[in-house]
Amino acid sequence: MNALDSLLTSEPRVVAAGADLLSEALAGQAVPVERVEWQPPMPGTETSLYAVMADPRRVDANREALDRMLASTAELVDVRPAQDVLGLRPGEFLHAGPPLTWERASGPMRGALIGAMIFEGLASTPEQAEAALDAGEGISLTPCHDRGAVGPMAGVVSPSMWMFELRDEANDGTAWCSLNEGLGKVLRYGAYSSDVIDRLRWMSDVLGPLLQAAVRRRGRIDIKSIVAQMVQMGDEGHNRNRAGTLMLLRELLPDLIDSGAPSSQIAEAVRFVSGNDHFFLNLVMPAGKLQTSAGAGIDGATVVTTMARNGTDFGIQVSGTGSRWFTAPADTPHGLFLGSFGPDDANPDIGDSTICETMGIGGFAMASAPAIVRFVGGSVPEALRTSQLMYEITLAENPAYAFPILEFRGAPTGIDVTLVARTGILPQINTGMAGKVAGTGQVGAGLVKPPAECFTAALDALAGLSRSAL
Description:
The protein is an alpha+beta fold. 39% of the residues lie in helices and 20% in strands.
């Protein structure tokens, strides 16, 4: 039977795009209808889209960026204090998201900085810390991304905090991330009570050195391999890291035991890590930073290399525009709340953990982690549909991170500014929610999308570079 005969003898089928009126009418007549997502390009983007799409460098530049990203590796090689690996000195702090001043800092960012001041001994009370930060003398605030690091939620890093150090040998890259404190009232969510500070001191005095000893005894640990396994075990890498955390502990436990440290300290460390399902997030994030950084700085490339938020602004960076930030006001996530907290308690989106979505997992991988909807809201069908939709705005699939429910299709990788503008589809992010009042801590978890203005501004900048290159 030829194609024409097959068409004439098969059941009627309609593919519908645009307005729902026609498809709904046909569906009412029991005609099979397949809906296709389509809408005009984002308003006002036509001229810039034409310029960028006409850039002869674009196809080869994006191919180079994607080749580097897909080839990236991520191995845990050490655990060291930030003052050693990043050269931070007293009064120097890193933070999540694009550049920020104390005056524009949100409640959770202020709370985290206040706590870091107390932790470093630069203030003895929250009032003293706030006064010093307000005065600004001897204080510097720098985005984690500007130093090759990433930080969840407020992402505040101070000199005495210990950092995971990961290497990408394929692209000669290094990235860092602090150790995960757990959930609830923790520094990264803006809490700074005495128990928060005590926990940070224990992490600095006990946990960091123990992990360092175990990693140095064990040798390099392939974090990319663990991420590959965890997305096939029900984790999506952003808000669900249970399998990843336990696999990491399996790698480290023998060398923790053989480290010679007191058994009581080892037991305490193991209880802390095994009881904190988010511990592995702080290893996924630098793995993502290595992957996306590998594709950065290529003239003509339209691939997004960073998505990050500081609690006030959402910012993106694009390969073809280097380290330039494109920012817009951050939106507030919608989702599920803890205890008596509600929408009025939530701060706008915050954290560098959107590097997970930038690398193709997190909100992009919810199809592979349907249980995540019980933590961030939504439904299993929505999770499946979301992952499928993200292929519409990405240029490649990463076979390293395969989704079993989608017939082991690789993770949607390489967000393309032109595809976002042409489809109007924005990246889906699942995230924790911090209380908007400093000192509150975590209030819930939910779903959020970046503001479209970040992508249209990046597109305009790329268009200017495309015109000048012609």
